[in-house]
Here is the input.
Amino acid sequence: MKDCTLVIMAAGIGSRYGGGIKQLEPVGPDNEIIMDYSVYDAIAAGFNKIVFIIRHDIEQEFIDRIGGRISKHINVQYVFQETTDIPEEHKKIVRKKPWGTCHAVLCARDAVKEPFAVINADDYYGKQAFVELYNYLTSEREPLEGGKMDLCMAGFILKNTLSENGAVTRGVCSVDDSSKLVSITETYNIRREDGKVLCGKQETSELDENSRVSMNMWGCPPEFMDKLEEEFERFLCQNDESETAESLLPIMIDGLLKNGEAECTLLESHDRWFGVTYKEDRQAVADSIGELIKNGAYPEKLWK
Here is the structure.
């Protein structure tokens, strides 16, 4: 079995959640949280290391709620995303919010030296996506022409990723006939109204509910970290005095595709996504987990 790491971004403040640490909300019958199910599925798929990206202020609670039990089953490491973890020359302001998902993954650069996948902490992705990513990341493939970076992404069906409790943001994907990602458009305020899937606020437009979307589940070779560091430096040169600007993985990867620096294979998953974006989502997630347990997808007590 080949080495492959799962990087879990769990440092988000969760401003839409209404306070509290949404990543640590129990949703399983034995107080499991969503990350428990992601780690369980990743281990089953073949991943052999977990890197949690967290904040120092939630470290102990994080270890108490998940890290302690997970470490009995897989190698676990922690890295920390702090607003001050940027080059000294860019520390021009004091920021309350982190610098985005590119910054988050970059914080793991010293812990990841092998192919890796990246996921959000508060999203349930289903078993298929982990299997697809692991198989792709550990397969033998010819290098891409022109030295392009070989990326992959788990693509979900838009209608399977909506919340009943409010609007969501998704990366809407354009894909060619060979399952290569052509572009990814960060799309805001997506919700279902009157039987249609709409996006936007003042000016709304309709989306195809069967569109492929990104849920921030990426597969990357280890050299991706070097490119990420380069792109984040470029971002800071333009935004290091902003209190709100964020460097986001979908936008960065879309730029690499358009510049011809990378190719990204979309690995399609038909599993239903669910996650805790709003407080009202927690019970729906718990009910969905309960149904999966009833159907035999998971044991009632995940780690016992």
Summary: The first helix runs from residue 34 to 45. The chain has a mean pLDDT of 91. Residues 106 and 225 are 6 Å apart (CA to CA). The first strand starts at residue 5 and ends at 9.
